[in-house]
Amino acid sequence: MSILDPNKYQTEVQLPCFEARVGYQRPFMMMGSCFATNVGERLVRLKLPVMVNPFGVIYNPLSVASSIRRLVDGLPLVADDLFEQGGLWNSYAHHSSFSATDRDECLAKINQSMASGAIMLRESSHLIVTLGTSWAYQLKASGAVVANCHKTKAAEFDRIFVNTSQAVEALKEAVAAARSINPSLKIIFTVSPIRHIKDGLVENQRSKASLILACHTLCSELSGVAYFPSYEIMMDELRDYRFYADDMVHPSSLAVDIIFKKFVHSAVNAQSVEAMNEVDRIVRAVEHIPFNSEGAEYRKFCASMAAKAEALQRKYSFLDLSVEIERFSR
User: Fold this and answer.
1) pTM for the whole structure
2) 30: which strand partners?
3) What is the per-residue pLDDT for 290?
4) Torsion angles phi and psi, residue 135, rounded to 5
5) What is residue 189's three-state secondary structure?
6) Which of 172, 225, 252, 311 has the fewest Cβ atoms nearer than 10 Å?
7) 158 phi and psi angles, rounded to 5 deg
8) What is the mean pLDDT of residues 45-51?
9) Are residues 275 and 316 in contact, defined by beta-carbon separation less than 8 angstroms?
10) Among 240, 261, 262, which residue's Cα sits nearest to residue 251?
11) Of the candidates 266, 223, 209, the residue with the CA atom closest to the CA atom of residue 14
């Protein structure tokens, strides 16, 4: 009979230790749900060379797979690929953040992001994919699965469940396509810790279970594919509702920070982790709002931080802190 540690108040998820890791030295991509954006924004803030969601937020595995294949194909959208809804032009393959009142503006935003994403996919060391839900929406008229419904009438869609086999097949094809243009590309899959309660709590658990099984199937059948347990950390280590936002569904900022730090521990190389900690101090100084921006004390602070940023840039040749140096030198 084992005796539990009386000072231990959590069941901890064992973190993977990836052999191939991301860092400042080579660009990488993140695609998928809004959790990918949450983590990606923290990496961008720390100046890592990461591109986040070139199609905007995408939740279901079929749309994620389709987006990857679109980047590999490199074909731009044309005007006929867009549709107008509620005064906005939209793409069923993209998030509403790309929508615009002017069709040409919408098309330009989409094609610029896709072109950048195609280049980034060819150059990336890793593609990190966050899957959100197994539930998807299929247009009745064409049978196409959409990444976003854009408030089109529900009668236009069939709600479908993407089972494990379908997800594995689609994502396998997407990985193969990505590696046809970038043979050394490593893949990290994770499942979003955000519960989709509008699907129903039972349906959400079924959905997440299917995604987790798909991820582990891909890890076992493909080389260079790994899994990071975002969902499991939220459900087991952070199961208390104090780690949730006011809607009791989304992880709080604290919870995202905790999962982010665990991701960094598993997936970022040691030299980059050291640099991230130093970059964070520079970025915090930039974000600081002074009481008196014209005072001698603040000017002295800025001169000190500019010198530190310049020294840090010399220490790590892969860092570009020119924006921060200019900010402190004004």
Assistant:
1) 0.93
2) 52, 128
3) 77
4) -85, 135
5) strand
6) 311
7) -110, 130
8) 96
9) yes
10) 240
11) 266
Q: Is the domain of 236 the same as that of 329?
A: no
| 3-state SS assignment for residue 252 | coil
Claim to verify: residue 210 and residue 296 sit in the same structural domain = no
Are 184 and 225 in a shared domain?
A: yes
Token code pair at residue 79: 């005007």
Do 152 and 168 have their domain in common? yes
Q: Are residues 200 and 314 in the same domain?
A: no
Domain boundary (232, 253, 268) is at 268
Residue 217 lies in a domain: yes
Q: What is the pLDDT of residues 220-232, one digit of tens each?
A: 999 999 999 999 9
For tokens 């190389």, the residue is 269
Residues 259/232, Cβ–Cβ less than 8 Å: no
Same domain as 242, residue 231:
yes
For 245, phi then psi, to 5°, come to: -70, 180
Six-digit token pair at 318?
């892969």
Task: Count the neighbouring beta carbons within 10 Å of the beta carbon of residue 8.
Answer: 8
The whole domain housing 323 covers 269-330
